Amino acid sequence: MGLVPVPNNRKNKMSKKNKTISKKIKKSTKAPFSSKVLDEMIREADDFPPIATNEELETIKDFYQQHPEININLNAWIQTYTGKKFYLQNPTLDSIDIIDIAHSLSQICRYTGHSSVFHSVAHHSVLVSYLCNKENALQGLLHDSSEAMGLNDLASPIKNLPELAGYKKLEKRVQSAIYRKFGLSEEEPVDVKQADLLVLSIESNSFMQPLNPDWKIQIIPTLKIDPLSPTEAEELFLKRFWQLCPSIDI
User: Cβ distance 125 to 237 under 8 Å?
Assistant: First the structure.
């Protein structure tokens, strides 16, 4: 607690029970704890002094009240490529810019960077836009755009962990705002998800070989993707956007 003044009257003496537990821990360092030792440690854990006294807790509270600038900002924002402030918990439509989305997605690597070569989310998104139904091509292009706005590209097995329920909620909020910005339904069409999985299959054959046998995916061996640099992927993404939205006001 380097920034917080600590009272001088803190008791540092260990009780006899605590000293006994400390000796047991030292004796156990050469081998895993036995269940007997662990059970006794858990039973006697309440005998340890608190991490902070009531007086110290009041001092810490006073310190944070005097320095609100170091408190956690619950309304977090990021600066985008074009210099905008984007609030993830309260996204506004005027803070969403296709230039920011294209630039960021072109520099985010798929598969959390574990592909054999760099393959961007921007490139992936363009492919999805061509493989889904024509009327949903714009949603196909934008289906991963929340990743550009501070959320990055997490692998699906990680996203689905119960510990990341808050992330998925935030992702849904940001993605919905992006869809609204461009006049689209907030619900992702089934054919966009199907195209997403089809591209995943082709990508895994192109950039994830040898593929772990536990992957439950059907490979199309005749199809492969040529990788693009971030600059090429960004240009391709923007060209596809303007092809789909020649008169849209951004």
Answer: yes
In single-letter form, the type of residue at position 247 comes to S
CA angle 108, 195, 211 (to 5 degrees): 65
Contacting residues for 46 by C-beta, under 8 A, at least 6 apart:
none
| 19: its two tokens | 């000293």
Residue 216 corresponds to which tokens in the numbers above?
């439950």
pTM: 0.70
Mean pLDDT of 91-112: 96
CA dihedral 224, 211, 113, 157 (to 10 degrees): 110
Closest CA to 167 of 188, 183, 147: 147
CATH for the 77-244 domain, from 1.10.10.10, 3.90.550.10, 1.10.3210.10, 1.10.3720.10: 1.10.3210.10
* Cα separations in angstroms, 194 against 34, 106, 110, 132, 154: 52, 22, 18, 7, 19
**Could you give the CA distance from residue 118 to residue 178 in angstroms, rounded to a whole number?**
26
